Amino acid sequence: MLDLKLIRNEADRVRAGLTAKGGADLDSILDLDRRMREILQDVEVQKAERNKSSEEIARRKKTGEDAGELLDRMKDLSERIKSKDAELKEVERDLGERMRWIPNLPHGSVPVGDASANREVRRWGELPGDGFRPKPHYEIGEELGLLDFGRASKISGSGFAVFTGWGARLQRALIQYFLDTGRDRNGFTEVSTPFIVRRDAMFGTGQIPKLEEDMYRTEPDDFFLIPTAEVSITNLWANEQLGHEELPLYRMGYSPCFRREAGTYGKETRGLVRVHQFDKVELVKIVEPETSYDELESLVKCVEELLQSLELPYRVLELATGDLSFAAAKCYDLEVWAHAERRWLEVSSCSNFEDFQARRMNLRYRNADKKLVYPHTLNGSGLALPRIIVALLENNQTDRGTVRVPDVLRPYLGGREELGA
């Protein structure tokens, strides 16, 4: 959530940032803010007058003077104050609701424009040659007994997958490898958090209200199945005050992720490219504002090291303003090459939210000067599994119809070098 003082004092800058991100109704917020301050000032004047009258009534009663006129005036003032208080609550409620829909501002370094303005920062790895045409992941996966989409559809409908045999073991191996690397190489502490959260947790990290239609909600409890472990991990510190010495906080966790993915996506409805439930390891940082952009770069580096160890060609994109998420101030997408798909697939987004999420969660800390301020929050997928598995199955096929296992995963698969051998 943006700081109302920032909107009030730097309206032109805020408006420019919101326009670059897709626009928002800032005028109504400024009007409500002015009205709120006018009412507050009016109420303060009337309360001061009431207090003065109250003192005069007490004096007159003590001296035996008539205070009837003042008592009538006190009653009238009290009714006016009561009416203004009710009006103030209504304005504050309307202002608060409108503020919920205002996205975070993009950082000044972010390219301006829609997705076509996304900037490729770098690439790593060689794309597979055209001499061998691999089968799509959904074909080779079912042929080798790793995936079963038909039975998944039977029990849950389209957009789901069943991993079987070595496919299920590959899924588990990737999760364990990502967690081990996050702990041993990058200093993240693992947490295991709930997969179902309250509405205020979803609001805290910015998934709702804007994206509520894409979420799975339970009735009558009004709980949500998490779309990412970012929600439950970051909200661990909601409504808390941390000490300066507690930062930075590095946490990571595995979770299934649930997304309705409202809309149609053509051929992406087949296979693992776009599914309603998938597994992911999430990396979360809570840091001091002065360090957050260095922390963002180091977060991207953590994800790149994972992709390099899996021997997957990838590229890093800096997202333009119009392609940023609701809550992000700056974001890098990391995409792997899928050879049969013949395209890049996003497997991680690394974002800096600055103090946007902290304000929504009411998370603060005392800095070195003992001042109570908002920290910056960051997160990144480290990594999301479905498209990693797509790339592994499509990039590593052999002419014998098997799939080569990257060296780093072999210890997690009992030393197995190929799937389907």
UniProtKB/TrEMBL annotation:
Residues given in the record as L-serine binding sites: T228, A229, E230, R259, E282, N379, S381
**Record localization:** Cytoplasm
The terms under GO molecular function for this entry are: ATP binding; serine-tRNA ligase activity
**GO cellular-component terms in the record?**
cytoplasm
**E.C. number:** 6.1.1.11
Q: What metabolic or biological pathway is this protein involved in?
A: Aminoacyl-tRNA biosynthesis; selenocysteinyl-tRNA(Sec) biosynthesis; L-seryl-tRNA(Sec) from L-serine and tRNA(Sec): step 1/1
Residue sites binding ATP per the record: R259, R260, E261, V275, H276, Q277, F278, E346, V347, S348, S349
Q: What class of enzyme is it?
A: ligase
> In the UniProt record, does the keyword Cytoplasm occur?
yes
Please list the residue ranges annotated as the Aminoacyl-transfer RNA synthetases class-II family profile domain: 136-406
Q: Which UniProt keywords apply?
A: Aminoacyl-tRNA synthetase, ATP-binding, Coiled coil, Cytoplasm, Ligase, Nucleotide-binding, Protein biosynthesis
* Database matches in NCBIfam families: serS
Could you describe the subunit structure of this protein? Homodimer. The tRNA molecule binds across the dimer.
Which PANTHER family did the record assign? SERINE--TRNA LIGASE (PTHR43697:SF1), SERYL-TRNA SYNTHETASE (PTHR43697)
Tell me its family.
Belongs to the class-II aminoacyl-tRNA synthetase family. Type-1 seryl-tRNA synthetase subfamily.
- Write the protein's name: Serine--tRNA ligase
Q: What is the scientific name of the source organism? A: Eiseniibacteriota bacterium
